[in-house]
């Protein structure tokens, strides 16, 4: 069953039960999982997630997964369909620094994904900014291919408590579901472009743009070729999926998850 946050409700969009909770509530659940060695797999649902991860719904429903809302698209859909919004916007780029900064002890991280060299740069930033320990890294290209099925054992041997998987939707979610049982780390997160932001190789929108919840427009202006389809055609598909699913019945769809690599 999907993992619930104590005292939090869920809002069903596109067949996904998405937690409506505050950032402190989600962070507390993550700390508790680390301290008690329980398993919690955190997914961030933006419009791209809802469109591309639909084939994973049955697997998500039987796994220790918590899905939180990411972005204004989810908020608009919730208000349109359910006449209520989410408690807070919980995009990973904002939630993750709060999680790191609020921990009462150093945590052990394993960073996995992105281009060669990015994870190492993000590891240095994570240690310098928050004082946490990065016990291992693996890029999402040649190093990942070379590691093969031994990667789970490598992560376990590192003693990691938190594994960040940065492949984009739906590959990161699929990899987490495929390897959740084999990996001992209490927390795994699908984090999209987070390692790029941590390393400084990608820049976020100015704070005032984020407060207006227009970061998507800022990103579109910087990467129009990659993001135009996501914020036009895919956005229409997202609302169609949510409207068809209504209060909890996803549109019929079979087959494997798409291999398109979106980013947070």
TrEMBL record:
Family matches, as CDD domains: Glyco_transf_WecG_TagA (cd06533)
Q: Which PANTHER family match?
A: PTHR34136, UDP-N-ACETYL-D-MANNOSAMINURONIC ACID TRANSFERASE
A Pfam family (short name) is: Glyco_tran_WecG
Under the heading InterPro entries, the entry gives: WecG_TagA_CpsF
UniProt KW Disulfide bond keyword: no
Q: In the record, what terms sit under GO molecular function?
A: hexosyltransferase activity
Annotated keywords: Glycosyltransferase, Transferase
Q: What is this protein called?
A: Beta-1,4-glucosyltransferase
UniProt KW Membrane keyword: no
């Amino acid at each position: 069953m999907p993992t619930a946050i104590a005292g939090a409700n869920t809002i069903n969009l596109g067949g996904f039960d998405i937690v409506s909770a505050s950032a402190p509530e989600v962070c507390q659940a993550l700390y508790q999982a680390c301290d008690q060695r329980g398993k919690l797999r955190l997914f961030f649902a933006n419009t791209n997630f809802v469109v591309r991860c639909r084939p994973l719904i049955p697997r998500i429903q039987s796994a220790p997964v918590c899905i939180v809302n990411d972005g204004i698209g989810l908020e608009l859909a919730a208000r349109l369909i359910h006449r209520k919004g989410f408690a807070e916007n919980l995009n990973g780029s904002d939630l993750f620094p709060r999680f790191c900064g609020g921990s009462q002890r150093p945590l052990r991280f394993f960073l996995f994904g992105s281009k060669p060299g990015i994870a190492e740069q993000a590891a240095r930033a994570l240690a310098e900014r928050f004082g946490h320990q990065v016990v291992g890294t693996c890029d999402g290209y040649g190093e990942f291919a070379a590691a093969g099925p031994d990667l789970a054992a490598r992560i376990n041997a590192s003693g990691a408590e938190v594994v960040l998987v940065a492949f984009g939707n739906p590959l990161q979610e699929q990899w987490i579901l495929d390897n959740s049982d084999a990996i001992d780390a209490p927390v795994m997160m699908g984090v999209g472009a987070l390692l790029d932001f941590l390393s400084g190789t990608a820049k976020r929108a100015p704070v005032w743009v984020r407060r207006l919840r227009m970061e998507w427009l800022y990103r579109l202006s910087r990467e129009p070729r990659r993001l135009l389809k996501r914020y036009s055609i895919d956005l229409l598909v997202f609302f169609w999926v949510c409207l068809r699913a209504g209060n909890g019945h996803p549109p019929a769809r079979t087959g494997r998850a798409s291999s398109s690599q979106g980013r947070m």
